[in-house]
């Protein structure tokens, strides 16, 4: 009754107590014959025999009396069935969910009312050597003392049974269980209880000791795994496991089966114990009506093979040592020692630090050796470079540094200087400052540890107080820029070859420098001199890209972009080889910004889809690479004529295959070659082609203003500078800029750009001129073109084939 009327949830202990009380109560009221006692866990329910024939007529629901209604039990009238003096005993039939240990597969209708047995001893047939696994027990129990491999007698200890009785424990020891697979399971702290009829393995204790316990069909599988040691931070071997190192997951569809019988310790239920069956009892028959097969049911779900992409083999070609000890222990230790010595000689000769005692309240920043092999353009080793770098992550703003910035030279500036050198018939020389950052003088008080391998003997406890800058400090770029700026301004500029020699000597006296002569390579851009000018090329970089990404045998494309292909954002969220896509885009961006303006529009469009590329994006990217294969030798050529700086501006408005934003493009030429260009998506949505062209012209004017300021600071350029002519193919935009009329309907963001362009025109920074669309050099930077227009625009930007 406790379980039948219990509405709340019971704990496991309360449930077992309630079942034990119910079982004792039933044993007292019903003296069950021995032959009817269950031999295994049985779930026995009651099923009333249907007393109404399915073919009988519907029961009359009208009012009945004792006189006209016969008794259901005896068939006589005058009384109700519940008051019948000849009342028959109720007939119940049991539904048995599991039959264990019987010799027959039938069930009789006269079975005694069943009960639930939860005693662990009923899990299998009684044999003296059997071990039963009980997940409810909290200790191991063994009745046979001879099974113990180690034993210690104890007194005064008992264990509680599920039937509320207790048994005395005579000793505690260890027992080794041997399984059919040959594995041995060692049980610790096994209790010796001679009065128990079956040996018990505690499932909870097994799990706590690191084993995995699983019941699979007719087996009990016990498996042990090794885990990461907590105190010893190492990964230990995974015990009893099979690794398929040569098979990629899901690569070959259905993986081949591997037997793990040798890796798993298992125990089987005896063969004569019958399997679990579902028995339905017919009121008119005592035979079994249904039996489930012990063969696993095959799933009807369609299995889809997962695709993990193609297999790649990666080779580590950058074998530079990571630590000082690695460098000194490598095969190239001699070269690394020379590099380290050269670095320390520069630091000592420059007076970068002095050894002092660390003041109280001050902290030090660490330092680390960085090793790198410098390579030549052909891939051979140029020199071994060792650099001592400070750990700037320990610096705190306001304590170790106050202000910082890093001056970076634009490629546009380098190309302008190359073009001006041709126009004014000048030569370009290149010098390298060794340990440039070490010359910056510090304004802050910074202490650092002594470098590894160069700790001063007898002054091991002293620290280095930095007098000058060191690589890695947050303020190092700023301090070097200030130092070099002050030095070169103090000497002055000149264009005479004899004074240039004096300038080199002056710089060598101030800094440790290496004279590299006339420049041949600047930032991996080759300078090829000829009688009619200079050509800047990255053909070696193009070949490297094609070889790296496997396009040596691909067919050639005539144009870099197919305007008929619509490129939109991938809304599905499923990317295709995103990492490889981003690697190719990064390589192409450096190429497009260096010497190949003809692919700027394509790369700009494709770079917007880097986060989630799809098949369409990959097709467009493949076209760019195939176009590069056919134009490897294209390079920008600068000549002495025309010696005029010109700009071109163009825009593309919203079309069906370009998204919701237009595209702006501009290019500036000098000496017949492009030196500044850009292709980018517009930052606002325009409502007409006029507004799109106006936004592009504003962007072009901003670049022209920067170029005007740069040329104004060069003494070789005659002053004052004339306005930079910017060509635009929109007559409406030109008329709007030249008009002084104010239109109140013009949106504010358009009005701001219009005022900016008018201000540049009035200040004589730029001048706007009309050019036809077919003659607009910036046209390929705003849209995709056909082959004839691509070839024409390449000539306008100075892109020529070189040998």
From TrEMBL:
<dbReference type="GO" id="GO:0003676">
    <property type="term" value="F:nucleic acid binding"/>
</dbReference>
<keyword id="KW-0378">Hydrolase</keyword>
<dbReference type="InterPro" id="IPR001878">
    <property type="entry name" value="Znf_CCHC"/>
</dbReference>
<dbReference type="InterPro" id="IPR013103">
    <property type="entry name" value="RVT_2"/>
</dbReference>
<keyword id="KW-0645">Protease</keyword>
<dbReference type="InterPro" id="IPR043502">
    <property type="entry name" value="DNA/RNA_pol_sf"/>
</dbReference>
<dbReference type="GO" id="GO:0004190">
    <property type="term" value="F:aspartic-type endopeptidase activity"/>
</dbReference>
<dbReference type="InterPro" id="IPR036875">
    <property type="entry name" value="Znf_CCHC_sf"/>
</dbReference>
<dbReference type="Pfam" id="PF00098">
    <property type="entry name" value="zf-CCHC"/>
</dbReference>
<keyword id="KW-0064">Aspartyl protease</keyword>
<protein>
    <submittedName>
        <fullName>Retrovirus-related Pol polyprotein from transposon TNT 1-94</fullName>
    </submittedName>
</protein>
<keyword id="KW-0479">Metal-binding</keyword>
<dbReference type="Pfam" id="PF07727">
    <property type="entry name" value="RVT_2"/>
</dbReference>
<feature type="domain" description="CCHC-type">
    <location>
        <begin position="71"/>
        <end position="86"/>
    </location>
</feature>
<dbReference type="GO" id="GO:0008270">
    <property type="term" value="F:zinc ion binding"/>
</dbReference>
<dbReference type="InterPro" id="IPR054722">
    <property type="entry name" value="PolX-like_BBD"/>
</dbReference>
<keyword id="KW-0863">Zinc-finger</keyword>
<dbReference type="Pfam" id="PF22936">
    <property type="entry name" value="Pol_BBD"/>
</dbReference>
<keyword id="KW-0862">Zinc</keyword>
């Amino acid at each position: 009754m406790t379980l039948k009327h219990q509405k709340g949830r019971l704990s496991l202990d309360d449930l077992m107590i309630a079942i034990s009380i119910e079982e004792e109560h039933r044993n007292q009221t019903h003296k069950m014959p021995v032959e009817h006692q269950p031999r295994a866990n049985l779930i026995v329910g009651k099923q009333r025999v249907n007393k109404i024939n399915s073919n009988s007529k519907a029961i009359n629901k009208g009012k009945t009396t004792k006189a006209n209604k016969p008794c259901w039990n005896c068939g006589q009238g005058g009384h109700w069935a519940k008051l019948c003096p000849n009342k028959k005993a109720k007939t119940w039939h049991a539904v048995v969910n599991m039959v264990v240990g019987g010799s027959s597969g039938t069930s009789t209708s006269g079975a005694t009312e069943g009960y639930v047995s939860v005693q662990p001893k009923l899990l299998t047939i009684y044999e003296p050597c059997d071990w039963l696994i009980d997940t409810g027990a909290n200790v191991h129990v063994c009745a046979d003392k001879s099974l113990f491999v180690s034993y210690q007698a104890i007194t005064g200890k008992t264990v509680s049974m599920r039937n509320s009785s207790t048994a005395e424990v005579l000793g505690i020891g260890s027992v080794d269980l041997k399984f059919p697979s040959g594995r041995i399971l060692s049980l610790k702290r096994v209790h010796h209880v001679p009065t128990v009829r079956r040996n018990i393995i505690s499932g909870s204790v097994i799990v706590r000791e690191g084993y995995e316990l699983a019941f699979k069909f007719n087996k009990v599988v016990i498996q042990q795994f090794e885990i990461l040691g907590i105190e010893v931070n190492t990964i230990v071997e995974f015990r009893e496991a099979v690794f398929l190192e040569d098979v990629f997951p899901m690569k070959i569809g259905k993986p081949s089966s591997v037997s793990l019988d040798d890796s798993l310790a298992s125990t089987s239920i005896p063969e004569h114990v019958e399997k679990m069956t579902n028995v339905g009892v017919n009121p008119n028959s005592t035979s079994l009506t249904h039996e489930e097969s012990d063969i696993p049911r095959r799933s009807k779900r369609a299995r889809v093979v997962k695709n993990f992409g193609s297999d790649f083999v990666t080779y580590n070609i950058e074998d530079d040592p990571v630590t000082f000890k690695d460098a000194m222990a490598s095969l190239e230790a001699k070269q690394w020692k020379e590099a380290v010595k050269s670095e320390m000689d520069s630091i000592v000769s420059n007076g970068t630090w002095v050894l002092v005692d660390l003041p109280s309240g001050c902290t030090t920043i660490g330092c680390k050796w960085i090793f790198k092999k410098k390579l030549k353009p052909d891939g051979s080793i140029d020199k071994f470079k060792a650099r001592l770098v400070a750990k700037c992550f320990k610096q705190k703003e306001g304590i170790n540094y106050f202000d910082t910035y890093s001056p970076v030279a634009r490629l546009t500036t380098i190309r302008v200087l190359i073009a001006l050198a041709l126009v004014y018939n000048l030569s370009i020389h290149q010098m390298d400052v060794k340990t440039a950052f070490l010359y910056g003088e510090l304004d802050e008080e910074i202490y650092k540890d002594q470098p590894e391998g160069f700790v001063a003997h007898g002054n091991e406890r002293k620290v280095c107080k930095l007098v000058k800058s060191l690589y890695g400090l947050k303020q190092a770029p700023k301090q070097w820029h200030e130092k070099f700026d002050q030095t070169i301004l103090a000497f002055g500029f000149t264009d005479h070859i004899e004074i240039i020699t004096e300038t080199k000597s002056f710089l060598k006296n101030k800094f440790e420098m290496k004279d590299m002569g006339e420049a041949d390579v600047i930032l991996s851009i080759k300078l090829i001199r000829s009688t009619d000018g200079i050509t800047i090329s990255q053909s070696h970089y193009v070949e490297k890209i094609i070889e790296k990404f496997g396009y040596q045998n691909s067919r050639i494309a005539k144009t870099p972009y197919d305007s008929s292909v619509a490129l939109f954002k991938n809304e599905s969220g499923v990317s295709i080889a995103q990492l490889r896509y981003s690697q190719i885009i990064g390589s192409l961006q450096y190429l497009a910004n260096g010497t190949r303006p003809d692919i700027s529009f394509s790369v700009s469009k494709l770079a917007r889809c880097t986060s989630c590329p799809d098949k369409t994006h990959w097709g467009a990217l493949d076209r760019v690479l195939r176009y590069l294969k056919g134009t490897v030798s294209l390079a920008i050529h600068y000549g002495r004529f025309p010696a005029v700086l010109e700009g071109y501006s163009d825009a593309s408005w919203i079309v069906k295959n370009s998204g919701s934003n237009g595209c702006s493009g501009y290019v500036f030429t000098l000496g017949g070659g492009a030196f500044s260009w850009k292709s980018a998506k517009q930052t606002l949505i325009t409502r007409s082609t006029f507004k799109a062209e106006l936004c592009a012209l504003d962007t072009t004017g901003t670049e022209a203003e920067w170029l005007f300021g740069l040329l104004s600071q060069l003494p070789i350029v005659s002053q004052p500078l004339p306005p930079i002519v910017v060509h635009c193919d929109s007559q409406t935009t030109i008329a709007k800029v030249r008009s002084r009329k104010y239109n109140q309907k013009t949106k504010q963001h358009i009005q701001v750009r219009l005022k900016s362009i008018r201000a540049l025109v009035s200040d004589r920074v730029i001048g706007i001129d009309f050019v036809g669309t077919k003659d607009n050099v910036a046209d390929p930077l705003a849209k995709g073109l056909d082959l004839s227009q691509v070839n024409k625009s390449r000539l306008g930007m100075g892109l020529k084939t070189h040998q």
